[in-house]
Specification:
Helices cover 42% and strands 13% of the residues. It is an alpha/beta fold. The protein folds into 3 domains: 70 residues; 184 residues, 3-Layer(aba) Sandwich (Rossmann fold), CATH 3.40.50.450; 54 residues, Winged helix-like DNA-binding domain superfamily/Winged helix DNA-binding domain (Arc Repressor Mutant, subunit A).
Length: 350
């Protein structure tokens, strides 16, 4: 606990990040470095030196710990047994993680990130949700960023499978962003975890998200990019994953679609092409058999014919489903290669 407290002090110091921490502990123990900061003034900015000498740094760390207890959260330090083991081995691992929910030792070996555009297309949102659901069913932890669009779909898919999911924030745990995902964050924390390296009260500023992305990239075994434009933040995550030796996978799209420019480029550069969860599982050396239980959309198959195409209005009348639910389920069946869409909004069972 004393080591974690010292790590928290270091994490809260202005201008003192993971790389300077590595430089410091290459010379002396962290405790000694914090006790005699003047001996290592080349590593500590002037405001950090002032806070250490005045005791303000220790008082702020004590306040953060008290706040964490009040919020029912933990602060987990680098080197603790349930700190994600793969994350601990990246170039600049967070010194501490604020955790709402629970971390599981060994989780990194059975997890992967699913990321994509915030302005995701409906079809890609369905795919992200289906991928997450099927992969969570075989015991993989789905890691994403709680953002609008693809991230939200991925968390929902894992929850639908009653699986484990982890949300990594670009803000403090008490500043969930986007705010409309607060209820989703509650659901994620019940059986998984909502985590951040940022102190309480940190707002979701733009500069925080590249830092957040390196955690997404380094947490597990792979990163799957569902949809990404040419300048998407998901591409930053993918590049970071490559730098850390993680597998990168991407979903292809039509060249005319802006959201496919980034994923198509990743595939051209060597990323694994993903059509469904079976492709992801195969690349990780896993079997998807456990994920083959019928999903909610499979009940719709009884209203489709393998030889006679049926129109949307006819399928709606036969199934009794509202149009939004019907379109969602038809997209899921199409992605799962159980239904083919024909011109004129016709569908045929494969």
């Amino acid at each position: 606990m004393e080591q974690t407290f010292d790590l928290l002090i270091a994490a809260l110091l202005p201008g003192f990040g993971p790389r300077k921490y590595q430089d410091l502990v290459g010379r002396v123990s962290l405790a000694e470095g914090l006790a005699r900061p003047g001996d290592h003034a080349d590593l500590f900015a002037r405001p950090a030196l002032d806070r250490l000498r005045s005791g303000e740094a220790r008082r702020r760390a004590e306040h953060e710990l008290a706040h964490a207890r009040e919020k029912g959260t933990r602060i987990v330090g680098l080197g603790e047994v349930d700190y994600p083991e793969r994350l601990a081995r990246i170039f600049d691992p967070p010194l501490v993680l604020y955790v709402r929910g629970s971390l599981v030792a060994g989780d990194g070996e059975q997890s992967l990130a699913i990321v994509g555009s915030r302005a995701v297309t409906p079809q890609s949102a369905v795919l992200a949700r289906t991928l997450a659901r099927d992969l969570a069913q075989i015991g993989l932890t789905v890691v994403s960023g709680l953002a609008r669009g693809a991230d939200t779909a991925a968390h929902l898919g894992a929850l639908e499978a009653k699986g484990r999911t982890v949300a990594v924030l670009g803000s403090g745990l008490d500043r969930v962003y986007p705010p409309e995902n607060a209820t989703l964050a509650d659901a994620v924390a019940r059986d998984g975890a909502v985590v951040s390296e940022f102190p309480f009260g940190t707002h979701p500023e733009a500069g925080n998200f590249p830092r957040r992305n390196r955690i997404l990239a380094g947490w597990g075994r792979a990163v799957v990019v569902v949809e990404a434009g040419a300048k998407s933040g998901a591409l930053i995550t993918a590049r970071m994953a490559l730098d850390e030796g993680r597998e990168v996978m991407a979903v292809p799209g039509h060249p005319s679609q802006p959201g496919a420019q980034g994923t198509n480029q990743l595939i051209r550069d060597g990323a694994v092409l993903v059509r469904n969860a079976a492709d992801v599982a195969a690349e990780l050396g896993l079997s998807l058999l456990a994920a083959q239980a019928p999903g909610p959309a499979d009940g719709l198959l009884g209203h489709l014919h393998s030889q006679e195409p049926r129109g949307l209005d006819e399928i709606r009348e036969r199934s009794g489903l509202p149009v939004p639910d019907l379109l969602h389920q038809l997209s899921e069946l199409e992605i799962g290669e159980k239904v083919r869409r024909l011109p004129g909004t016709l569908f045929i069972r494969i």
